[in-house]
Design goal:
It holds the Pfam family RNase_H. This protein is an alpha/beta fold and 157 residues long. The protein is 43% helix and 29% strand. It has a single domain, classed as 2-Layer Sandwich (Nucleotidyltransferase, domain 5).
């Protein structure tokens, strides 16, 4: 794996549920020069794949302490298309879809928009489970986030 040049932060994110809907987890790998940060978390109660896929880039971007250029990789076309194509129209239409239905996960879309506004973010889609090392690691982190959230909720009972 080559290190990112200059002040570019390369982020790979993933999220998922087992089952969907069900408990979920998210993971992110952040790289800048020789620095690497791994992040994960989860929801022990019912959530969705899409909510976890959205949470991962939100948490990664919100973790950055200064404005930087970000290359953000996701295996979710929902997230990539939503933030690069659909969100402007949704916002213009009062957070309604073209079919005049409320946008799902509006809270997370608004939070992702705000997080992106702090940085210069370029979005990339990567095929999931295709051997891209940091995407595979983000997937493992999402699984760990799910497992840790479920385990913590079982202890709390």
């Amino acid at each position: 794996m080559t290190e990112p040049a200059g002040d570019i932060v390369v982020i790979h994110t993933d999220g998922g549920c087992r089952p969907n809907p069900g408990p979920g987890g998210w993971g992110a790998v952040l790289r800048m020069r020789h620095h690497v940060r791994e992040m994960c978390g989860g929801e022990p109660t019912e959530t969705s794949n899409n909510r976890m896929e959205l949470t991962a880039p939100i948490m990664a971007l919100e973790a950055l302490t200064r404005s930087v250029t970000v290359h953000l990789y996701t295996d979710s076309t929902y997230v990539r298309n939503g933030i690069t194509k659909w969100v402007v129209g949704w916002q213009r239409n009062g957070w309604l879809t073209s079919a005049k239905q409320p946008v799902k996960n509006v809270d997370l879309w608004q939070r992702l928009q705000a997080a992106c506004a702090q940085h210069q973010v370029e979005w990339f889609w990567v095929k999931g489970h295709s051997g891209v090392a940091d995407n595979e690691l983000a997937d493992q982190l999402a699984t760990r986030g799910l497992e840790e959230a479920v385990a913590a909720s079982a202890i709390a009972i």
